[in-house]
Amino acid sequence: MCRLLLFVALFLLNETHAQWYDPEKISKKIGYKYGIALNEAEIKNYDKALELIDECIEANPRFVDAWLSKGGILSTQKKYKAALDAYEKGIALDTVYAYHFLLPYSIALAGNGQFQDALNAVQRLLQKPTINERYQKSAQFRKKCYEFALAFESKKQNQSYLFSPKNLGEAVNSSFSEYFPSLTIDEKQLVFTRRVNHSNEDFFISHPFEGTWQKATPLPGQLNSELNEGAQQIAQDGSMLVYTGCNRKEGEGSCDLYVSYFSKNQWSEGYNLGWPINSEQWESQPCLSPDKRALYFAARLAGGFGGSDLYVSYLQKNGRWGKPENMGAAINTAGDESSPFIHADNQTFYFTSNGLPGYGGTDLFLMRKNSDGNWDIPQNLGYPINTIDDEGTLIVAADGNTAYYASDRSDSYGGLDLYTFSLPEYAQPLPTYWVSGKVYDVKTKEGLPALIELTEINSARVVSKVQTQEDGSYLVPLPSGKNYAFNVARKGYLFYSSSFLLEKKENNNTYQQDIPLIPIETGSSIVLNNIFFHTGSAELESSSKIELEKLIQLLQENPAMYIEIIGHTDNVGKAADNLRLSDQRAKAVVDYLLSKGIEAARLKSKGMGDTQPKADNLSSEGRAQNRRTELKVLRKE
User: Fold this and answer.
1) CB 566 within 8 A of CB 526
2) Domain spanning 521-637: which CATH class is it, in words?
3) What is the reported pLDDT for 507?
4) Which of 44, 114, 303, 559 is most deeply packed, by most CB within 10 A?
5) Cα separation of 260 and 251, whole Å?
């Protein structure tokens, strides 16, 4: 970019201009100093270069090349406003000589957010028929970017959005570069990569205290080494960390994906995920889904669309990762796609691309899952989050509003720093709560590993499947705005069910729920909490299907189990009517099971009316508890 901005005239056809400015007439003394300035710029000693150029301009204020080169250097430093001042002074001195500098001038305009002015400038340049093919191609590319920026601005809903990134401060950032932030769902652990001594990459962690991030320290345990560890992501529950390791003896290729586990207050040594995740090619920048059943990452693999593509691998029933699947042509391009991040809602996906339409560099995009569980078309996050420069990794906290990213802004402590900012509404995922606790045996009180499934009630779409830790502890994200069935299952036990009704809930809530599982044995029973009937009727609501299918699965997995379905009501109305209704409702459940192939000999039904309340009938909450459907194990052979 620097070469383009400083020496753009070298790419042009030799032609004669009607101009007053002649570079040959600049004094040798000033020309010599100007040459030194350009050499300093070439080795990226920009401050020294600007100092020398300013001396040249002071000696000769009509030195057009010095003004234009100053604009180029300032643009390279992303000081676009100052660059515009220099460019405009140089162009104003001789518009004919400076005509071909309209392209870098337009880039500076766009860098300052002046996309209409940038488009006007590049269109003026393209009116010149004598510019060479290479330069014309660059101008056409920029023209397309500026038109995209203006089109995005015209349809953007939140016109009042203010992009105001806040540096996380010297407790987190240092004179070295910090990047690839990652965050647990409760925002109590911020893990990131730091380039120590400008060479070795290690992981650091910071914890909050009274709203302020505390001094970052190396990640405890065996994970950091003399080799580079980077591009990590911590699981939402803080139990594991996936990351990238390169050029390792045990590696499959140049860069591989690794995993580390947290136990006894420290992180384990990294474990290479092996084939089929890793190959002899490049794999990097892993990201776990909130339920830890999907692993997204960037890779350069044969058969891709070009550059680095995004892939996903799914956890198999045997506990191994499946063969990576390319995420497809809707997201991957001939350019580079990288830095995947899926939000705690498990429905909103962020990534970077320099191949999709955007502002000219690497932009940030998002995709959302539709009602079918497939990804919608990627959306550019727009200016000012995206700029003409390259944007990097973005992550979003559970609240759906707070974003974190790495940038080398003017208030950086050195290199890349970590920043936080608020997302505009159109780029926000669902605010996400969570439920955590422990699954345990109701008799022994010992923790149990189990499978937890969260299903959106209206669509019956499974939002997440979470395997608990070996001790039964778990954390399940709960995206807001939906109602969910919550089911816990383990072989040899009756399943547990409850629900979270968040469709109209706006408060930021978290839930603590320890879950007792009851062994399958004669006399054991559970409440089927997600069986619903129309008011005053024995007709099953469609939302009951989720629970009914779980019941069918339980009976299929335990073919020697015989059960009774028992219906209960509250005490509203006549006792005889309640008894009849409860009996009809229990029978409706049995009829559904029969329709799905469960043998009649294994099923009984009975109505108890309002004779066995679980709570008082004085409140709506108590009456709701009393209106229930129970499953009782008659015998298990």
Assistant:
1) no
2) alpha beta
3) 63
4) 114
5) 15
Report whether 393 contacts 352 (CB < 8 A): yes
CA 630 to chain centre: 41
What is the Cα–Cα distance from 583 to 342, expressed in whole angstroms? 47
CB atoms within 10 A of CB 26: 20
Interval 136-168: pLDDT, tens: 999 999 999 999 999 999 887 667 889 999 999
Place of tokens 């409706």: 588
Q: And the tokens for 71?
A: 């604009």
CB 356 within 8 A of CB 380: yes
CATH architecture of 174-427: 6 Propeller (2.120)
Model-wide pTM > 0.85: yes
Residues 6+ apart with CB under 8 A from 612: 568
Place of tokens 């109209």: 504
For residue 343, give the nearest of 405, 431, 411 by alpha carbon.
431
Cα torsion through 350, 452, 465, 192, rounded to 10: 40
Element (H, E) at 437: strand 432-441
Mean of per-residue pLDDT scores for the chain? 92
Taking the domains of the chain in order of start, what are their residue ranges? 2-155, 174-427, 431-519, 521-637
